[in-house]
């Protein structure tokens, strides 16, 4: 599994770069992997965290790639349950360089939204287009187009936001973020500690190789 980066980690605020299926990628703290291997591990990490989507920047990899799934019951975020999520998957998605076009401009605010990089915080009222078209590249390098509405449309918009350095809290009034100030400050401290540990491990590795 990859460690999921938390609110406060700078990588989560950067705009991710394009990625090609033939690229070799290196998640910090891990050996180089193919895009397909990274996608597989992203999915496993997402299942372990009981999520519905996970973008590459959330594991410290600033590339335009995300994974997502449609479960048999998609009304909940699935976090905190016990049932194995893989057994409930209807479809899974791996999208490289996704581009979203809105096909229904009417905004939906009815779903509760959360984020694996902001664990434990959920809010309703995030305005999302009700239906979208996504153009993306698959793992075989083929160009694909997918149209979805309602819950999956929300998931795709949420994940593309991550590729542009945007959190769902950013789409709500500032006072909502302020309400969670203590929890977010704690996550920022955790994010800083993890980055310090990662830098220390990398320094030790280089010293050992020298």
From TrEMBL:
Fe cation binds at residues 115, 158, 162. It catalyses: N-terminal N-formyl-L-methionyl-[peptide] + H2O = N-terminal L-methionyl-[peptide] + formate. This is Peptide deformylase. The active site is at residue 159. It comes from the Bacteria. InterPro entries: Peptide_deformylase, Peptide_deformylase_sf. One of its GO terms (molecular function) is metal ion binding. The keyword Protein biosynthesis applies. It comes from Deinococcus phoenicis. Removes the formyl group from the N-terminal Met of newly synthesized proteins. Requires at least a dipeptide for an efficient rate of reaction. N-terminal L-methionine is a prerequisite for activity but the enzyme has broad specificity at other positions. Its cofactor is Fe(2+). Gene3D superfamilies: Peptide deformylase. Binds 1 Fe(2+) ion. The keyword Hydrolase applies. One of its GO terms (biological process) is translation.
């Amino acid at each position: 599994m990859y460690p999921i980066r938390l609110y406060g980690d700078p990588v989560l605020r950067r705009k991710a770069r394009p990625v090609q299926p033939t690229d070799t990628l290196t998640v910090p703290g891990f050996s180089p992997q193919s895009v397909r291997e990274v996608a597989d591990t992203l999915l496993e990490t997402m299942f372990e965290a009981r999520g519905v989507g996970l973008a590459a920047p959330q594991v410290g990899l600033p590339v335009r790639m995300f994974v997502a799934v449609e479960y048999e019951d998609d009304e909940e975020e699935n976090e905190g349950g016990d049932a194995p999520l893989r057994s409930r998957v209807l479809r899974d998605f791996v999208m490289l360089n996704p581009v979203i076009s809105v096909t229904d401009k009417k905004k939906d605010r009815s779903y509760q939204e959360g984020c694996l990089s902001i664990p434990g915080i959920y809010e309703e009222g995030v305005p999302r287009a009700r239906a979208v078209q996504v153009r993306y590249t698959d793992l075989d390098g083929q160009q694909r187009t997918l149209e979805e509405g309602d819950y999956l449309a929300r998931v795709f918009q949420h994940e593309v936001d991550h590729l542009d350095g945007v959190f769902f809290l950013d789409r709500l009034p500032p006072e909502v973020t302020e309400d969670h100030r203590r929890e977010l400050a704690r996550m920022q401290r955790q994010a800083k500690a993890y980055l310090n540990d990662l830098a220390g491990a990398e320094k030790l590795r280089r010293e050992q190789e020298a």
